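Adenylate kinase: structure tokens wanted.
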Amino acid sequence: MPFVVMITGIPGVGKSTITRLALKRTAINFRLVNFGDLMFEEAVKQGLVKHRDEMRKLDPMVQKQLQLRAAQRIVEIARDEPVLLDTHATIRTPMGYLLGFPKEVIETIRPNFIVIIEATPSEILGRRLRDLKRDRDVETEEQIQRHQDLNRAAAISYAMHSDALIKIIENHEDKGLEEAVNELVQVLNLAVREYD
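Answer:
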């Protein structure tokens, strides 16, 4: 049975770092798939964008088509190996927040777990300000908290349509990255039973 763990969190929460470190410690090899990368590859192929950060400004219907194509590719990959799906539950666009996984997309992927990485708005804002590699929108701490709240609500909706379990992992400056990584490893190691 395919085993897919979705890992999500708003930009600057530390999701990529936690994911990278956890994958070095799992009992089984996971294929790390970035949902945005799959969408970006398809968008470039169609001549829609040149830079990844332009995707969130595409027409929502175009984004949904890209999402569905990416979901189909994930299902193909998960037939052969467990997938850790690095993604965003919601995407802030100029028109409002877009669900990262409309109903037909989440029903296609059917993840086993949805892991949400969270931190305080001030921690996220500080991390964003230190990350000069990305062209991120500027948000206030209140907007950051709203985005995290929307991610939780989206995860509940996704779980309703996929029977996934939800795990929230906190990545606070004082808690330590190590603890967050260990929590993710525990979830990922559940895949061992599926691929033995």
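The first helix runs from residue 15 to 23. DSSP finds eight helices and seven strands in the chain.

Cheers.
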